[in-house]
Specification:
- The complex is a heterodimer of chains A (481) and B (329).
- Chain A is mainly beta.
- Chain A has three domains: 2-300, 6 Propeller (Neuraminidase), CATH 2.120.10.30; 315-387, Immunoglobulins (Immunoglobulin-like), CATH 2.60.40.10; 400-477, Immunoglobulins (Immunoglobulin-like), CATH 2.60.40.
- Chain A is built from two helices and 36 strands.
- Chain A has helices spanning 2-10, 323-326, and strands spanning 30-34, 44-50, 53-58, 78-83, 94-95, 106-111, 117-123, 138-146, 149-155, 165-170, 176-181, 191-198, 201-202, 206-207, 218-223, 228-233, 243-250, 253-254, 258-259, 270-275, 281-286, 294-300, 309-310, 317-322, 335-340, 346-348, 351-355, 360-370, 376-387, 400-402, 406-410, 421-427, 433-435, 438-442, 447-457, 467-477.
- In chain A, the strands form nine sheets. In chain A, strands 23, 30, 32, 33, 35 and 36 form a six-stranded mixed sheet that branches.
- In chain A, strand 10 and strand 11 form a beta hairpin.
- In chain B, strands 1, 2, 4, 7, 10, 12, 14, 17 and 19 form a nine-stranded antiparallel sheet that branches. In chain B, strands 3, 5, 6, 8, 9, 11 and 20 form a seven-stranded antiparallel sheet that branches. A four-stranded antiparallel sheet of chain B has the order 13-18-15-16, with no helix packed on it.
- In chain B, a hairpin with a 2-residue loop joins strand 15 (240-245) and strand 16.
- With 329 residues, chain B is mainly beta.
- Chain B has three helices and 21 strands.
- Classes of the chains: A mainly beta (481), B mainly beta (329).
- The A-B interface holds A 315, 317-325, 327-328, 331-335, 337, 353, 355, 364, 366, 368, 370, 372-375, 380-383, 385 and B 211-212, 239-240, 242, 247-252, 269, 271, 282, 319-329.
- Strand 24 (317-322) of chain A pairs antiparallel with strand 21 (323-327) of chain B.
Amino acid sequence: MRKILKHTAITGLILFVSIAVLNGQAKGTFEVTQISNISSSSDEMAPVIMNDGILFCSNRKTNPFFTKKNLEGIRLYELYFAPFNNEGEPVSPVRFAPNLVRDANIGPASVTADGSMLWFTRNNSEGRRLGKKQPNRLGIFTARRSGSQWTDITPFEYNDPEYNFSYPFVSADGRYLFFCSDMPGGVGKYDIYMCENVDGHWTRPENLGPEVNSSSAEIHPFRHSSGRLYFASDRPGGMGGLDIWSSSLVFGSWTKPVVMDEPVNSTADDFAFYAGQGGMQGYFASNRRNFNDDIYSFASTIIRWSACDSLQKNSYCYEFIEENALKQDTLKTGFRWEWNFGDGTRATGIVAEHCFSGPGIYDISLDIVNLITGGIEKRQASYELEITDIEQPVITSPDTIAAGETLFLNAGATYLPGMKVDRYYWNFGDETVATGLEVSKVFALPGRYNIQLIVSSAPDAGGVVREVCVCKDIEVSAKVK
Amino acid sequence: MRVTRLILPLFAFVLTAAPTGLRAQEVPGPDENIPYLITFGREGGITSWGDDDFSQTFFFALPKDYKDPFYIRVYDPDIGGKTDELNNFWNTRMVYSIYGGKGCYTHLEANGIDPRGNYKSGTLMATRTFGMDNKLDERWFTFGPFNPADGEYYPKFLSNIFKIICDGVSGDDGNLYRYAISRRPDANVPVDGANAFTYEYTFRMWNNNDTSFVSHIYPYVDSGCVWVQTRNFDWDNDGDFIVVSVVRKGEVLPLSGEDVWETSRIQVYDEEIGKSLDFRFYKRKGELVKNNNVVVSVQNQFGENLPFFSAPIGGVPVYKPRIKVVPKK
């Protein structure tokens, strides 16, 4: 709340971008690093990945002799672009599209997937001072790329100078626009709204409702390509100040928001979370250090193999064929083939099938009965069948479960001869992990989850650790009512 | 020439089949478990007693390196007494003729299945006619001595070939007999590496209704053989006829009824080429079929007759089951 007041009161511009890719993950599944290359003594926030760098806004001082300030003497926010260096780190930020604003704040922005259109927040009035009784509220604007320039600045059709419209985010497919506003009719303070582009026109803004919005402020909406909506809110239940929350649209309803764990969230203000395509890395803003808003990168520390073998089912079933007799299978024969499977069971026929109870060494023998004389020719052929389990980590669990129910998983049937397993690591396919021989998991949402079990050995004398991965799909159905 | 092509790969096997050949001096051989050969007198042309042509031809093959005199012996050559088959009264005469020299084997009509044309080709080495003679009942009669060099040398066979024909020239009784070749006239002393064969086998089944009495004959399957047709005559549906090989545990073929032929065709597998088949004849359980006399021959797809060796080439074929195990998904 403090953060929102600070920005609305001082700059009239709320500058939070919510990035969030993950929720429900175990603590410590991310590494968070402040991006020192673009940090300053001022504020940086609202990072957005654009082309080969990030777009963000800052109120940093750019001219030692002249600084644009608002009526309260606070420096105005401007857009900056910091290209990635060879290590993929944003460096050397420069002003971005200065023509988009004149003597006003410009802030959180969003770029369409094809990079042709920029949606951004800006004071409705620019280039002139308004009286103290005339608040210069925020509006949403678009600009089109024309070569290296951004032109054709157009206000969003639902802007209203009486209220703030800010934090635009356009979904990857360009179909949905999310933004925030304090216009009447909301749940409280700043709420998140959504419009749908139908035949080139935006539908009227629709409040996401009380499941997402609250009596507190919700800002910085970001909907990841996975479908999950991330936003920042100072609602109760967080870690303090603004925290990053997420919710998903399931069967037409938004799920109850979940707050992200440390270290993404902290007791300070954490907001403006933006994740890359895979959701395993991205950026967010936080004032956890020195009370300045700074941009942080995050990277998942979750282990997930890109190529993990599917769990193979051990089969103890075999077909036994007497090949020479099979040649004459259609002919009349004066004999009967009797199989002894070495486990106390028998079967007759030139071809027989049998399922053993488990691994072992079985002495398969074949007796042939002369149907004319009734004589039995014992052990005319034999076969030592050694059945072993497939060498793999083994996930033992139900294949299906309902959302909200506890799924128990066990790796006790792992069969990796010669490997002393030191750790069982579970990746549940929803960016959550666990370790241990036996674990449990509750999936909040229906869907198909690919669970990976990664087992690793202790380092050998040479320090080599052997790792093996196996995966299995779990179908999570809708919650049983 | 057909015979030549059929036999070509044979002789090498004959030479290497010495251990079995040692026992092959008697016809029927020990592996055949056949009590007697049989030939009926041709009077009246009665075939319903189990002889289709009243004549039986056998060939003896002696290794070319065998130079000593040898004898051909006949067990119970007479017709009458304990081991022959009486039809009203003993009136039958049998002529045993032994041939050697050029053409005794290779003549086209010498190695058929019917006594036609010049089937008595070659040089007559000895002949004798037998009627009822108590002195020879269940005793051996000896022909010879013979000089192995007087046989027809068959170079591709590396053997000297002699032929013996038993013709039922008169009467209508059945003559039960056996052969042996021997180094001695008064005992059956084997000639190393010798063997005997025929193209049509006429023999007596055991007088027993126990299925454990199994008779065998062993046709040799030459290369190029795709299928064979078996012919059996006057079996009186006495039991079961199955074919066994190294890859054939037991294919059941039909047996003939009274005084009729029964034919059936079987595919030849690659694994059977260059080996012998085992034709097994099981006696019927239950009501005994007594004094059952039968005829068997077999031809390949070219109409060439396959030889039945008293000592099976390659040994008695033993079926070898082969287990394949396939995991099921």
